[in-house]
Amino acid sequence: MQSLQPSRRKSISYAKYGYFFILPFFLVYAFFMLYPLINTFVLSFFGNGRANQDTFVGFQNFQYILAGGSRPAKAIHEEFILSMKNTIILWIGNFIPQIALSLLLAVWFTDAKLKIKGQGFFKVVMYMPNIITATSVCALFLSIFGNTKYGAVNSFMLSNNMISEAINFVTDETKSRVIVMFVQTWMWFGNTMILLMSGIMGINPSLFEAAAIDGANSGQIFFRITLPVLRPIFIYVLITSMIGGLQMFDIPYLFHEDVNTIRPSLQTVAVFIYKHFHATDPNYGYSAASSVILFFITSLLGSVTFAMNNSSKDKKKNKINRQQAKARKQLGGF
Amino acid sequence: MKNLKKTLAALSALALAGSMLTACGGTEEKTDSAAETTTAAAAEGGDAAETTAAAAEGGDAAAETTAAAEGETAAPAAGELTDDGDKLTIACWTGADLDNMIKMFCEEKGYSADQITWVQVGESGGEAAEQYEQYFKGDEDVDLFVAEADWILKYINMDEYAAPLSALGIEESAYGDAYPYTVAIGKDNNGVLKGASWQAAAGGYVYRTDLAEQYLGVKTPDEMQAAIGDWDKFQAAAATVKEASGGKTSMTATIGGLWQVFAANRNEPWVKDNALVLDNAADFVEMAKSMKDNGYVTGVSQWTPEWYAVGQDDSTMGYFYSTWCLTNAEGGQLYQAEGGPSGATYGKYNICVGPTNYFWGGSWLVPSTKCNNKTLAAEFVNFFTTDSAMMQKYAETYGDFVNNKPAMQAIVDAGTNKNDLLGGQDQFAVLIEAASGIKMEGLITEYDSAIKTNFIDSVNNYLDGSYEGTDATLEAFQDAVAATYPNLNW
What is this structure's pTM? Predict the structure, then answer.
């Protein structure tokens, strides 16, 4: 009996207690994330409207949204396509200036030669918009670009006789889109800049030194060293921004003055989902189906981008392998 | 020792999980108790049993209904309501109104305030319409709920949530003095009366007296009414005002206000035989466009701070306001438009009927199928919808236009009601005419709320330049309705 004691003690595993400690997370996850996720797929196969909420309709919602047909189907199809179009326009319009601006700033801030003073201050100031809630940001921009003569910009320009009539910043299709793009850029460029900076600072400084000694100018250093080495971070920023962009909701949804009126030119897919879900007479089927469609689009785009990154790496690897093989051959196959 | 460790680990894990879950559950409890405490304040003495007995002895309307309710139980009523609940619970989104009502009801009838409570479901009528269903599905107590004209049919057509008023012992014959349109709206698709309104929300055109005299040369509300008595005159007056003011003053503040007037004057319901009926929708689109293009509306949006600001800076001649906009309460719409007692235009407004009669809003009391305070609920409904003496008192105290013709007539005849916001004018004297001219029988559908929202959204988008022309606007509107209600076909 006594001899068994040590071996028994050895077999006691404390690992299982670890599971107890992480259990709360999984419970909460299953309850608040997993179940709604699965239920969304289930709901997408059920009908719309008060009478048909519990009717199984198969792929009808998807067919309506993606293909159109009779009047209700055509209406929902056109609305969805418009929402998709809006999403893409708003995403591109904020992603390009955002990435350009943050890349430029990231390079400047990390450049050893420039030695910008007060870097910490600038970083904090530029990151700040991201900390403010979207609601406050939107309220701010709505009061700056108010539609009527009471809006700050309109009021200023009218009183200085720069314009004769108030400009419709909020209700005009192009102007409202541009403002939303600007707000999105302004809110997110700080975040992207920090990400890119951490990427650039991870590059071995000896590469920059070597390039400088070889007489490369800053343009060459940027395009030949910084950008290629930054590629993985770049892909990451692209994917996260794409997912965020496809789910863009807060600013477009909030940017209107009337209590109820969501601008058709700002209605993104996420707003579309919300609108049909959150109504006096909700259409859960449409909301769920379009969520599922959005989910598949996001996964598809994400994997394409990811695959692009990987395949080019493979190509490079293959190239190196081939070169090595060639070298080995030349050296007489040692 | 080993077991202790195990227990400890399990306990701490549980505590962690528990704290996470209670964080979510806690807020709900908080709102409930907050709602209760607000009404439980100012608890007046008086045993429940005693007061009921006293009321029965007095032989007033309440006693009669109790008797009627007892007689009713013999008949196979559609919804069997019980009388064993502890508290009368009213679901609503207008807690402040309910506070006033409960206070007065308790004072008059001798109940203690903690016997009646309200729960706030949503912040606006629209939110309530959306959230009631969830609330009713839950375990919470609800005896009566408040509904709005636009979506009352959604709920009273659901027999699982709404009980007929006859289950409380209140028959349709009790509403002979009510405005007929409110009774028509309170009936479900089978003609069963399920809701009773305590308000008749007639509206009128509220205008600036000083600007009207300056630009239109009118001195009294009657002259003003003669100047804008129909839509053609209204547009002509708008043109005069615009010109005389040098383009500074518009006739009305928003398209939204105009729309309320138009929406109450349709010839056909929005939905007939499962199809959308446009009726005079095109007329409104065209009128809205021309008024916007000519600058007869200010261009501000309804419910925004600017909407109130134009009431003080001569940008608008007036507003289309319903009776509940005219109360002296601080949050009242006219109160805000005048900027309060120190505002630039305080008391400089008058009211007239305007181009046509209309109503805007209104609140119906509907018994819930979960009602377990039958007697008290019946007494409460009767107090505010059939008891003309009490309704008159309520109108005099809170400035609400109650749904009882003799009561309102008595107030107007007495001539005691003077509204400071209107420079001492009695708004009831004007609105009583407007209210009697409202005809909504058969024109209300369960789809109205969403359809009307879709319509005004489409019109607003048209005026902002999103669509080309009236046809495109109506097309967009029909698409929006089709997207909201896939079961409609036309």
Answer: 0.78
